[in-house]
Please model this.
Amino acid sequence: MIKTPDPDASWRDSARGAKLWIFDAYSVFPFLLMLYNIQTWTITLAVVVFLTLTVLNYYGLNGAIFFRLIRSFISGPRKTASNWWE
Model:
């Protein structure tokens, strides 16, 4: 017997990331910019950014997490507890 999903339980999917088929919605965004200015370099840039974000998503990272990781490598392991304006 096949059990149909409960329509009242759709709130469980609210924490999942937006996807367009199997791709993360954020990785499809460069193609929208490419459609605004269709040239060879924008198509190439959109494909490179799309592939990079897709590979990062495959390894469990999205863009925000990846940039936080890069920032932690740049800033180093030691964090000071002083105000930046003093």
